[in-house]
Amino acid sequence: MFSEELEKYGWEETTEAIMSKSPADVERALGKERLGLEDFMALISPAAAAYLEPMARLSRKYTQERFGKTVSMYIPMYITNSCTNSCVYCGFNRHNKIARVVLTPEQIEDECKAIKRLGPFENLLLVTGENPAVAGVEYLEKALQVCRPYFNNLTIEVMPLSAEDYARLTRSGLNGVVCFQETYNRKNYNIYHPAGMKSKFEWRVNGFDRMGQAGVHKIGMGVLIGLEDWRTDVTMMALHLQYLRKRYWKTRYSVNFPRMRPAEGHFQPNVIMSDRELAQAIFAFRIFDHDVDISVSTRESAGFRNHIATLGATSVSAGSKTDPGGYFTYPQSLEQFAVSDERTPAEVETDIRREGYEVVWKDWDKVFD
């Protein structure tokens, strides 16, 4: 399991290694076709800030070679905000005094119909809080079955499950799983996750192994920018991605770098990442892994997303609502966090095409069921 591999890398030691990288280390990494972890650390180090332009050019080159001039579109659907966790930064924290909703199958279908009216989406991300008593595997399985007639690609972002449960959901139409580790800093992890299943660091970080063992087609990873040193966290995620690729090589992978946005509870980020630093992290990941899908959500501004779509990002969300039932049933009432890019899907598509890129609404079809 990855938790055992992670024990070989001390947080403080890794941070020091990153901060000690020199311009020569950066230039050496940029001259390589394939990078190791030390090279990746050079590209996300402060020394690499002066090399953002050559990093951007190299990131664009590798992205176009692997993905062409395309950007995939997806949309999230929040189906419940019921949660047993106490994550200090999250609007769904069980102590927050908000109305709790668990959408019925009929309401989920209404949301599907409303999303299809927004645009020709085929990639749907189902999102829940973590409350297995009311939104467990049976509930998720039913939700997938309701959504399948409307969407060709179904991904979930839910509580970590067992390998057997991931396999069960895969048989019910699941294509992918997204899970944010939030932070790889084991020492400080429980400061942000003091109670609930999410407080169990090993169970969460080893969930990606269970996804791979279950044969999940695509695995999405992410760290929440704002909790701990972002350079160290994304280095640990690069290590994790490298580990997963070696063991579950039939699986596709994606990464995400969500910067904290305002949410109920008023938690203030410990770390602020600038737009240039976010771009640096994206370029570094593309140069490190030419095949990984890099996703940028509506947490980021329209201007940033337009620009980064030509330099390394390969999938974006559009028209997102972060509240359960937000498209039809309970519009604008129970959101997990505030979005930054409020453009309609059509407006996002127009802006991407204006950059000379093709918008892909559907990129997966299970034709051999």
From TrEMBL:
- CDD domains membership: Radical_SAM
Q: Which GO terms describe its molecular function?
A: 4 iron, 4 sulfur cluster binding; catalytic activity; iron ion binding
Keyword Iron-sulfur found: yes
Give the keywords, sorted: 4Fe-4S, Iron, Iron-sulfur, Metal-binding, S-adenosyl-L-methionine
| Cofactor(s) it depends on | [4Fe-4S] cluster
User: By its UniProt entry, which InterPro entries does this protein fall under?
Assistant: Aldolase_TIM, BATS_dom, rSAM, rSAM_sf, ThiH, ThiH/NoCL/HydG-like
Specify the protein name. 2-iminoacetate synthase ThiH
Q: Which organism is it from?
A: Candidatus Cryptobacteroides merdavium
**What is the primary gene name for this protein?**
thiH
